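Table S5 (text form). Sequence records supplied for joint modeling of the two-component complex.
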Amino acid sequence: MIQPARASALTLADLEAMDRDDPLRALRGAFVLPDGLVYLDGNSLGALPRETPVRLQEVTARQWGQDLIRSWTEHDWIGAPQRVGDKIARLIGAAPGEVVVSDSTSVNLFKLLVAACRLRPDRPVILSEPGNFPNDLYVAQGLQGLSNGGVELRLASADRIESAIDERVAVVLLTHVHYKSAAVHDMARITARAHARGALTLWDLTHSAAAVPVDLNAAQADFAAGCGYKYLNGGPGAPAYLFVAQRHQATTVSPITGWLGHARPFDFVDEYAPAPGIGRFLAGSYPILGIAALEVGVDLMLRADAQSRLDKSRALSELFVALVESRCAGLGLEVASPRDAPVRGSHVALRHAQAWAVMQALIARRVVGDFRAPDLMRFGFAPLYNRYADCWHAVEILRDVLQTAAWDRPEFKQRQAVT
Amino acid sequence: MIQPARASALTLADLEAMDRDDPLRALRGAFVLPDGLVYLDGNSLGALPRETPVRLQEVTARQWGQDLIRSWTEHDWIGAPQRVGDKIARLIGAAPGEVVVSDSTSVNLFKLLVAACRLRPDRPVILSEPGNFPNDLYVAQGLQGLSNGGVELRLASADRIESAIDERVAVVLLTHVHYKSAAVHDMARITARAHARGALTLWDLTHSAAAVPVDLNAAQADFAAGCGYKYLNGGPGAPAYLFVAQRHQATTVSPITGWLGHARPFDFVDEYAPAPGIGRFLAGSYPILGIAALEVGVDLMLRADAQSRLDKSRALSELFVALVESRCAGLGLEVASPRDAPVRGSHVALRHAQAWAVMQALIARRVVGDFRAPDLMRFGFAPLYNRYADCWHAVEILRDVLQTAAWDRPEFKQRQAVT
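The corresponding structure-token record, covering 838 residues in total, follows.
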């Protein structure tokens, strides 16, 4: 791993040599990456696997087009959520039968929050942190409104989360890797603390899965959910997934009791009966095209040796921070992510007073990260396709944009919504 | 329109002549239909439009692959749910801004049921009918469980629905076209009755949209939802849609308050504030691949003249019933759908003691319908690609299967789950 102190001595040739030695280098070729683009936004929308359009062609032209309705059994569409869920399980320290692909992260968080609260009916509090990914807070607020006072959202800053877990807390809802800062919560410690106080945990793994070490069962986590379109490379708005620890499956039920979560959906009886395992958290007919695309991304991730993948994630972000510190000093940037690699996810946030305009200028120079209000630029590092040399080019262009004030042009200052 | 009395005099040549005169005949070529297959299951999974794989190639290889994250604005991914929702609105008598594509039908029914119940907080009852599509009952049962006694599901048979609407009913939840029998509820009359008693209506349009006349606003319907994978030809597990009458939009909110239903999602503030219009019923990141495929199907539907489309739906099912009655008499079949076309949807259910085995034998002979427990075969008629001659071939093969007892073979009697 690159040490920051060495960064100022590094040359592009050094980084190109590291890319040649990268045990994962062959996997870059499995992705479509436009020529000359330094894509550091895989933490927002992962790159397209070359296989994905081929697979979609197979699922549409061949399966849907030719085999039509019988594809549900013949091509195991019916088993897709659990099949792909079992694959994702291997990336997040879960066992087979503990993960299922379904709906969106928001809907899954809703389902799991309700399930968790119903396991602790005498405890009204959902505990989270201010500045958590807003979606997670919104979902909790929606549940609060729905409960007529039965549920209460309590916020405590990251350093006070553990002490805020008391006997009124039903569930601790946290994003494992913070969407802005990339700060990593200690899943095992917080979960242990929650359990000691009789509370449960629900982890949003959106910025974690496949990018940082996650071991849900080692941490004895209760519930988790995450999206498919970031590091899993499942495509825009890819289906999400959810995790329910095996020990909770028989005693929890989704509030959205759709027919494909029924124990015998094709009996078409009037009375709901939950499927025996994780399947009870399914609801409506599942998005076969989306799951097919997601499976390609997950399969690619599983082709990489896990340790090499996690080492490279860390090495890339570590290198980026070191290069920024050594080559962009005095240019108005502040590293807004933890400097300590083990508590940082696979993206790096840089603060700059003109962050929006600087990011637009970078994009115009073919370095793609993203902006998060009010003053952060995010750069995500995807171990399967980003190169050490990408970090070099990104930082050199960033330095040039700042030194020449290239961002200070009207077209870079006009804000519009982006994801 | 074919009169049943004339059916016994009809010949295949007559029907082929009707196909030649069909004003929609050119649209059949817009779909992939395997040679020699009589596909009468478009009410379960609509056929593949030829354009869909092309569009998916464009959205994946070009948009996702080359333009990556900026596609959200550049290719208007961000506006897709409302853009396609506005198109679906034209098929169901809704106005622009009243329909949005999102989630699954189950999740949408959950959102709308909760929204409806919260508009009538002093009324505990969701009224539906026994034997309604079980999913809808399951979702209501889930909400009942969630409400700790605050919500109660009451069932009344179709002929007693109107008299069962009393001052305790918050919302009437009905599937407009029954999934088994194809019986059509009188949306305007039931809605008027509900409104006269202070109740609201939520219509499941899954078997209706694009297949039978639906005019939500003429009926003054309050809420509706439906799927994208049947007559809309959006593909397996296509995204669903929901309708909220404009007059309710400012006073209702989804229980699943995800970030893309926020008024300013990219401000990333901690407090939820619902988007001003129908957008507040969106939740998580939406399935761009699925919406792209759905849009192709909806666009095709809009290419057909609406009256021709609805006339042909009715003529096809009318012809099928007439042919069955005239050519399969005495073979153990019973028409389990209303005989009166205006109160029948675009599929026909036939009852037979060995329905499962008969359907398997039909499928082996390349006539595809589906089975619904315990004893029904369903045949769906899709006006854009089914032909009058298809009805002839289906009925001739059905007659042969029954006359020769071709269904009475072990391989046709082994049940497995299908959708």
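Note: The mean pLDDT of chain A is 96.
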